[in-house]
Amino acid sequence: MLYFDKKTTVPRNKTVEGNFTIDAAGAVTLPVGEGFSVAYAAAAGKWNITFADPGSTLVKADVSFEHATGTDAFPLVGPYSAGVLMVYLWDISDAALKNVAGKIHFSATFTNYRT
Predict the structure, then answer these.
(1) pLDDT, tens digit, for every residue of 30-67?
(2) Domain that holds residue 68
(3) Is 7 part of a structural domain of the chain?
(4) Looking at the domain assignment, is residue 8 inside a domain?
(5) How many domains, the chain?
(6) pLDDT band at residue 3, thresholds of 50, 70 and 90?
(7) pTM recorded for the entire structure
(8) Hey, which bits of 1-115 come out as E strands?
(9) b/e sequence 76-85, b meaning 16+ C-beta within 10 Å
(10) Is residue 64 part of a domain?
(11) Do residues 97 and 91 lie in contact, with contact meaning Cβ atoms separated by under 8 Å?
C-alpha cells in the first residue's frame, strides 16, 4: 500500500498529527486527530500513543507540551516499538517524570519504503 499525504510531496510517507489533554493525575481526555489512540502508561509522566498502522516504519517524531499552568516540565519522545510511541513528561524542578496538567501535541512521520 502506498500512502499519499497532502502535507508531503513524498508519496510513500504518512504523517499522523494530534494532541490530547492530560490532567494532574495523568488521565487522558479530548484526543484530537485520526490514526491513533492514547493511554496513560500507569506510571507518572508516561503515555503510550498507539498508531493505527503499526506495519509502517517510524521516520521521525516530534512532541510539544502546552502547559495548563506555569511549570518547568517538558515532553520527550520515548521508544517506538510495534506501533506504539511512548511520550514522557520530565519535570526539571523535581528531576523526575511527572504528571502535569496540559496538552501534549505530537507529529509522527511514517514510511512504507524499504531499502
Answers:
(1) 999 999 999 999 899 999 999 998 667 899 999 999 99
(2) 15-111
(3) no
(4) no
(5) 1
(6) very low
(7) 0.85
(8) 13-22, 28-33, 36-40, 46-51, 57-67, 73-81, 84-91, 96-97, 102-111
(9) ebbebeebbb
(10) yes
(11) yes
d(CA 51, CA 3): 15
Q: How many residues make up the chain in this entry?
A: 115
Bridge partners of residue 33, in order along the sequence: 18
Rounded to 5 degrees, what are φ and ψ at 101?
-65, 135
Computed from CA positions of residues 97, 99, 104, 108, in that sequence, does the dihedral angle turn out positive or negative?
positive
- The per-residue pLDDT of the chain, averaged, comes to 88
d(CA 62, CA 56): 17
The answer to whether residue 5 is domain-embedded is no
Band of pLDDT at residue 2, cut at 50, 70 and 90: very low
CA 61 to chain centre: 8
Based on the number of CB atoms within 10 Å of its own CB, is 104 exposed (0-12), middle (13-18) or buried (19 or more)?
Answer: buried
Residue % of the chain over a pLDDT of 90: 71
pLDDT of res. 6: 53
